[in-house]
Sequence to fold (516 residues):
Amino acid sequence: MLNEFLSEYGALLAQGTLDTFIMLFLSCAIAYVIGIVLGVILHLTAPGGLRPAPVANAVLGWIVNIGRSMPFIILLILLIPVTRTVAGTITGVRGVIVPLVVSTAPFVARMIEQSLAEVPRDAVEAAEACGASVPRIVFSALLPEALPSIVRGVAVTLIAVLGYTAIAGAVGAGGLGDIAIRYGYYRYQSELMIITVVLLVVVVQLIQSVCDLIARKVDHR
Amino acid sequence: MISIQHVYKTYDLPKKGAGRTARATDDAVALASAQSGNPVMAAAAATAATSEAAASLAAADGKVHALEDICLDIADGDIFGIIGMSGAGKSTLVRTINLLERPTSGSVVVDGTDVTGLSGAALRSYRRRVAMIFQSFGLLAQKTVLDNVCFPYLAANGKVTTADRERALALLDRVGLREKAASYPSQLSGGQQQRVAIARALACEPEVILCDEATSALDPKSTNTILKLLRDINRETGVTLVVITHSMDVVQKICRNVAVLESGRVVEQGSVERVFAEPKAEATRVLLGKVEWDA
Fold:
């Protein structure tokens, strides 16, 4: 019976899992590139930061907040023209990367900002007193010191975005969420719904465990 | 020669949770609390609250005057103590020397050059001549002891060469921690961490080392080790030491000259022998324990 089920749906579930992973890791990778830059700028320009700039900080903060206040499903629709221009399509895995990045980057920015704020001020001040430039402090002191916290943040981000990819399934993005909705919901195939949920649970556990392990490995405190 | 000329430092009344500024203005916060009549803080800053000087600090203009008209000359090779109660402005003062804090007015003149206006690369190269050690050591927890000592080289040149590593190891040898080079700061005791911080401070062969409450977090034995180390380094290299402390014991052990700070003003200064023998200011007598503690 299991063999029968697997021969019928195995390929579908494998493709769905792969699609989910592509959406998840690709969009998070791009979001982290943008989010780290934004997070560092937010941290440096904050009042009492290394380069205080109240106006820039407030404007950037608003932009990030606006990005974060859009429900993902709304953003998905709002961004359709942008997605079409950038990705060339608004469906499939390709069509959902743009909204995923736009939605995740502000989230990452706040996670990074928070991780950087946890770095003891004395260590940063000591680096400053050594005559280090601001970029040097960022790359050789702030980010390395915040690394364990950043890695833990990666787990939170990946798991949140996994939820978004499932939502994206609702508009035909592919992946496990798409399978759950099309087969599990529209066709009343409960066993497929259950399997996709189990797969998602396993993925979440894996992400959390791997990130915890890495965070412990890189943390020398 | 470091010459501090009519330095004032004024803060707007600090807001809660202003992050970096809030910590940097610990002194100012203590003053503000004393002024606002908060009983707990006022008790902690009892001398400040009752003195003339504190009254004159009353924030009529909504500002906290952390430093007022500070004039000090610190000679090359000296071990110069700056002593005062919590909130007297010691940390703010020492931070104006390497410009972690900018004076509101007045100037810091080092070897005849006014450094107060320095910025960018000039400021960074000046800071390499003036090293600093901290009460909480300020080591990078995710870097090894050796990498911490090499950090000033990284800051100066953007890279760490083999020769730099050799020099760093020699410095670790000097502070007695060569075998800990591959350890992380968390694996060291407080006294050992401070010795690493001293090795880091020495990395760029500074002319001055600012010691901000360098022994306040340490037990008496580690304190003595650190003080002896600082004194010996002063003798060997002729580096000027500016020692911030609230402990007369520290001043007595290593300093030659001392300035007593109270509520942002220098109330007494001179050679350590003179100040200990005939303290003039009330604050000095309190610091020396020469007033009735239960009064």
Summary: Chain A is about 85% helix and 0% strand. The mean pLDDT of chain A is 93.
